[in-house]
C-alpha cells in the first residue's frame, strides 16, 4: 500500500469522479485508475461502486477512508517535522479556532508568532468547536482552540484549559430592557437567532432554555458568527454569544445573564498519539505567553479571564 495510492483514493472519494480526481492530482486518468485497481487488489476488496456512472464508496471504501486521511495527514506532518530541523526557519502550523476567537485575541497572538517565526506558514481553520474536534481527530489540524467540556470523553485528544469567557444576550443597542441583566427564562417566546449545527453555542443555548423549561422560538437559524451578529443587528431576534465578539459593534449590546450566568472554557488541544511538531510547539508557547501577559496586564477582551494552573 503506497501513500500515492491512498491520495488517489481520497481524491476520487471527494470528487466522486475519476477524471476530476486525476485532474486534481495532476496525473493521467488511466494511471490513477490503475493505481486504484492495484490498491483494491492488495486489499482484496473493491473500494468503489461504479454503477450507471455514479461513483460511490463500498463498505470497504467507507472503512478505509478515515484511515487513509489520517495516514496522509501523518505523512504530511512527518515531512513538515523534517523540514523544521533548520531552526524553525521553515514549517507550518495548522490551527483551528472558533469564530469568536478569530475575531478577537487570536489575531494579535498570530501577529506575534509571525514576527518571531516569519518562515513558518500559518493555516487557520475557523469553525465550530465540534467540527474542530473532528478535524483534530482526523489529523487535519496540529492544534486547536476548542470549547470545553468535550461532548464525549475523547481519549484521543490532550486538552489544556486556557481561558474562561462569559456568554451574554446580544440585542440591538436601541432595544430597551427593564433590568441590567437577563434571565434565561426571559428568553421564552422571544425570537432568537441560532447558530448552525456544529457550534457549541447552539447546544449551550438550547440546553439552557430546556433546563429553564421551554423550547426557544427560532426566528432564523443556521448562521456563522458574523451572520448571527448581523441578523441580530437587523432586529431578527436576540442571540447568546461570547461577550468578546461585541467589541467594535456599536449596533449591538450584550446584556449579562443573571447569576450564575453561562460561561465556557477555552482549551488548547492536540492529538494524543501524535507529538506536536516543533512549529506547533513554538506556537503553543507563543500563545500561552501572550494570554498570560494579557491577563496580567488586564488587556484581555471584556468578559474573558485567564485560567491559572
From TrEMBL:
A GO molecular function for this record?
DNA binding
In Pfam terms, one family for this protein is LysR_substrate
DNA-binding in keyword set: yes
Source domain of life is: Bacteria
Asked whether the keyword Transcription is assigned, the reply is: yes
Q: Which family does it belong to?
A: Belongs to the LysR transcriptional regulatory family.
Residue limits of the HTH lysR-type domain?
A: 1-58
Q: What is this protein called?
A: LysR family transcriptional regulator
Q: Which keywords accompany this UniProt record?
A: DNA-binding, Transcription, Transcription regulation
Give the matching Gene3D superfamilies.
3.40.190.290, Winged helix-like DNA-binding domain superfamily/Winged helix DNA-binding domain
**What SUPFAM superfamilies has UniProt attached to this entry?**
Periplasmic binding protein-like II, Winged helix' DNA-binding domain
Q: Which GO terms describe its cellular component?
A: protein-DNA complex
Amino acid at each position: 500500500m503506497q501513500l500515492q495510492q491512498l491520495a488517489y483514493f481520497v481524491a476520487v472519494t471527494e470528487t466522486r469522479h475519476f477524471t476530476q480526481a486525476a485532474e486534481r492530482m495532476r496525473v493521467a486518468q488511466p494511471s490513477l485508475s490503475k493505481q486504484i485497481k492495484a490498491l483494491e487488489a492488495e486489499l482484496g476488496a473493491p473500494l468503489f461502486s461504479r454503477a450507471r456512472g455514479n461513483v460511490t464508496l463500498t463498505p470497504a471504501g467507507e472503512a478505509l477512508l478515515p484511515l487513509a486521511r489520517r495516514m496522509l495527514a501523518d505523512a504530511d506532518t512527518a515531512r513538515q517535522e523534517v523540514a523544521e530541523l533548520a531552526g524553525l526557519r521553515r514549517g507550518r502550523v495548522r490551527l483551528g479556532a472558533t469564530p469568536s476567537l478569530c475575531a478577537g485575541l487570536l489575531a494579535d497572538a498570530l501577529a506575534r508568532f509571525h514576527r518571531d517565526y516569519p518562515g513558518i506558514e500559518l493555516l487557520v481553520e475557523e469553525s465550530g468547536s465540534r467540527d474542530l474536534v473532528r478535524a483534530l481527530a482526523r489529523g487535519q489540524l496540529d492544534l486547536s482552540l476548542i470549547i470545553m467540556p468535550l461532548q464525549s470523553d475523547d481519549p484521543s485528544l490532550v486538552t489544556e484549559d486556557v481561558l474562561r469567557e462569559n456568554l451574554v444576550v446580544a440585542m440591538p443597542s436601541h432595544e430597551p430592557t427593564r433590568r441590567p441583566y437577563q434571565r434565561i427564562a426571559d428568553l421564552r417566546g422571544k425570537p432568537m437567532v441560532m447558530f448552525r449545527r456544529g457550534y457549541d453555542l447552539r447546544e449551550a443555548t438550547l440546553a439552557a432554555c430546556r433546563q429553564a423549561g421551554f423550547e426557544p422560538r427560532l426566528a432564523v437559524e443556521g448562521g456563522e458568527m458574523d451572520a448571527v451578529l448581523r441578523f441580530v443587528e437587523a432586529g431578527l431576534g436576540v442571540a447568546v454569544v461570547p461577550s468578546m465578539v461585541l467589541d467594535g459593534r456599536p449596533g449591538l449590546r450584550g446584556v449579562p445573564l443573571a447569576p450564575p450566568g453561562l460561561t465556557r472554557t477555552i482549551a488548547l488541544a492536540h492529538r494524543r498519539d501524535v507529538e506536536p511538531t516543533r512549529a506547533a510547539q513554538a506556537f503553543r508557547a507563543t500563545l500561552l505567553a501572550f494570554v498570560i501577559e494579557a491577563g496580567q496586564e488586564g488587556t484581555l477582551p471584556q468578559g474573558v479571564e485567564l485560567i491559572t494552573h
